[in-house]
Amino acid sequence: MAATYPARSQAQVTGSIPSPGAALGSSGDLSLLREAISRAEAGDGGAASAKAERLSDPVARTLVEWFILRSGADGISANRVSRFLSANPGWPAEKTLRARAEAALLSEQNSADDIIAFFRNGEPRTGPGRVVLADALRQRGQNDKAQALVREAWRSNAISSAVERFVRERMPGVVTRADDKARMNRLFYQEDAGDGLAIGERLGGGDLALARARAAVIRKAPNARALLDAVPAEFHRDPAYLFARAQWLRRQDKPREAAQFLHTAPRDPRLLIDAEEWWIERRIIARKLLDEGEPREAYRVAAGHGSRKDTDIIEAEFHAGWIALRYLKDAATADRHFAIMQKEASRKISVARAHYWRARAKEALGDEGAARQHYEVAARHGTTFYGQLAMAKLGRQTLQLVNTPHADEGKRAQFNRRPTVRAIRLLAAAGLVDKARPFFVDAGDDWTDAAELGLLARLAGELGQVKFQLAVGKQAVGRNMPLDTYAYPTNGVPQSPALGPKVERAVVLGLSRQESTFDAKIRSSAGAIGLMQMLPASAAQTARKYGVKWNPQQITDPVYNSQLGTAYLGDDIASFNGSYILAFAAYNAGRRRANEWIAKYGDPRDASVDAIDWIERIPFTETRNYVMRVMENVQVYRARLGQPRLLIDSDLKRNGGVATAQTE
């Protein structure tokens, strides 16, 4: 199978990665670096350190130390981690390393003063950190602060048996019954029925009855109803009971009855224990109510959320506003919800979505001026689904991508002085470039200079790592930084002869970007593999259909995987008469489900069906998001491939002979 790949640089061909400044070392040094990192990842920190001492490059030595600390091997002291973090700001995995240091404190023999000093520059973030500091404060007579820390750990952090033993032995009586109950509830919200039930056994009485009922609901046990009925009446207003009863009723396909229990729940996030899980349950029940023709009740469920996390607030307020606008025809109420959503939104996708729907609400209220203003704001984010829809509303026909700022000599020098950049180059020169992912991803999240981020993305491309180039660009663009070109690389999928129906090149790239972020070796928890995340059974079936020899060992090969994936996608598009919405939904959730959604919500190809509402009605959050992301990607990739005409409106209603930009 012939394929066309991007030209490889001389550095990629020879294996030597050029870098400004000092040379990257002899082949012997690079071999030693490989050996040291291998020993570090195997948990042999002593051998790794011994090899690192023989390295002449200080960044190489730091790199080995980073791998040792990141490995989590036994015997690494908290002070060793702390010294590394202090001496090397900006290195990736800082939160992970900090958590390892706090865990190490639990088994070390440090004085109370040393522990208090350790946390002088930052509050503890983990359960072990909080309880160790609590014990130190208790030794210094600060009992109230100690108890507050333990309470926070018990209610907010994962608590291992070792941490629990430490607290109960060193600070008997500090953990109250209320603390244990809060921890039990948190475990049940995380669907850890075993550990939650164990705490219930300790608590006894009505708490044990409630614990048994919650465990049964989580396990979908046949006696769940009987156990819920057996919970004493005085616990029937307990938020944990209300949640369990609502969840059980929802699973029995009784969303109306489930909603009544949600309506009596408090909105105070502290009483809910896990407001995020409460929102998930509310979202599912609200959508089921909408499916059953109960939009007013669906609205009440969505609007009654007690979320405190920004992403949950955004989702909850969207649902309440969308239901109010589209199904209750109450634009004023909808606008209030979308305004809250707008206030919470900070990333491009959410900002565009909030302003688009505020514009729709303003239109319904007859305020065309305000509607246009909100469309204008949404349209500034032209790489997003709702930004593109806003552009179409404003009559804009061309998608303009933002170019990364030019890096002058000063910026280049600053970039090349970064130890983490040299670490990337060292890993590449040693043949370990795949291990550089955290350096690229963390920079995409943290760096504030767009020109330097552009240099980093370019470096990823020079190293032949499209997936890392995408990681940098995607993270940066999500923070509203101008890296469109790097966030949408065009060489992530090899061009090769089609096995089945021809598929628009922008569609192949847009879908693969969402599926695998162009990582040819990635495997999902569901067993999907490679660039286009093919399930082996689907890949084998497609291979047989198109007369290609099926070789499961070859499924991670970029050409083989993309040819089979493109053929499978082409069949999806053909089976839905050209509809991209349905084809993308089917690729993610299966053709059977896509047909079920047509039966339930109407056919988005039909002019009488609102395609945007149809997408928002998709019951699976993952698939709903997937369809939007692939649709927006297609528009961007057309522009990247020289076809900047915006066709989002026609793509939404695509059916048979609708014209599209063909960029095979």
Helix fraction? 55-70%
Helical stretch count? 38
**Uncertain residue segments:** 1-21, 657-664
CATH architecture of the domain at 505-652: Orthogonal Bundle
Shape: globular
How large a portion of the residues is in β-strands, by DSSP E?
under 5%
Cα-atom radius of gyration: 28 Å
Number of strands: 0
CATH topology assignment of the domain at 505-652: Lysozyme
CATH class of the domain at 505-652: Mainly Alpha
Instruction: Compute the average pLDDT.
Output: 93
The class by helix and strand makeup works out as mainly alpha
Largest sheet: none
Cα-to-Cα separation, first versus last residue? 17 Å
Descriptive overview:
Residues 1-20 are annotated as: Disordered. It holds the Pfam family SLT. Residues 499-604 form the Transglycosylase SLT domain. The chain has helices at residues 10-14, 27-41, 45-52, 58-71, 78-87, 94-107, 112-118, 127-139, 143-156, 161-170, 177-189, 193-203, 205-218, 224-229, 239-251, 255-263, 269-272, 275-291, 295-303, 310-326, 331-344, 348-364, 368-379, 385-393, 409-417, 419-429, 437-446, 450-462, 466-478, 484-487, 505-516, 536-545, 558-575, 580-589, 591-601, 611-617, 621-640, 648-652. The chain is mainly α and 664 residues long. Among the domains are: 24-71, no CATH class; 409-487; 505-652, Lysozyme (Orthogonal Bundle), CATH 1.10.530.10. The longest helix has 20 residues, at 621-640. It is globular.
